[in-house]
Amino acid sequence: MRLDKFLCETLGVTRREATILLRRGEVTVDGNTVKVASVKVGEESHVEWQERHLPMPGPRYFMLFKPDGFVCSHEDSNNPTAFTLLDEVNMDKLHFAGRLDVDTTGLVLITDDGQWSHRITSPKHKCEKTYRVWLEDAIGDDYEQQLQDGIQLRNEKGLTLPAKMEVVDFSQNELLLTISEGKYHQVKRMFAALGNKVEQLHRESIGTIVLDESLEPGEYRPLTAEEVASI
Ligand code: URA
Q1: Which residues form the RNA-binding S4 domain (predicted)?
Q2: pTM of the predicted model, to two decimals?
Q3: In a 3-state reduction of DSSP, which class is residue 213?
Q4: Arithmetic mean of pLDDT over the chain
Q5: Phi then psi dihedrals of residue 220, to 5 deg
Q6: Among 36, 77, 99, 149, which is disulfide-ready with 72 (CB 3.0 to 4.6 Å)?
Q7: Is 2 close to ligand 1, i.e. is its CB under 6 Å away?
């Protein structure tokens, strides 16, 4: 692919603007400043604009360890958005494939591929999400069965779909919960319906994609091809 076409697609600029960036010496290919628009770049090329790596044009997929206090939206008047944790070009094209509440931590997937994120968020696909939950009060003996049978949430018509619960530590009121829907505040509302309260919530996995243990809160990385294909 020609370098000017590559810049148009990754940066969303016009051919003329791409030529100007090149003439100014803002673009390097494999460490060398390139000013010629017709130079060919491919999968193996490392292209940088203003010292920022530009990925090959095409859909983008990332996992982020969302910290407490960040919102999953492009704008918010009260809290910083989780997008501020990403250093990517064309940020306005990216969206969250399923949001977390401002005080929930853990795995969020970010992409510009709407069909892919639809398979995560659409109720039809029943994509499983696993949460680590800390409750205010003791885990009830009947919770596992009730969550399996379905919970009646306030202001919802039917019961929740069967959910799997696994106790991690009774003394800490800590458990893992796997659900296959994503209703508004679903986990908090499920435990509220059981007469308890979620004190802390952390998402560990979406489908078979697990939050990378090497990521610290606020860090992110591209998904591997296998992770993308797993959805
Ligand atoms: N359920 C909740 O209640 N909050 C979240 O952030 C995610 C699931």
Answers
A1: 1-62
A2: 0.88
A3: coil
A4: 95
A5: -145, 165
A6: 99
A7: no
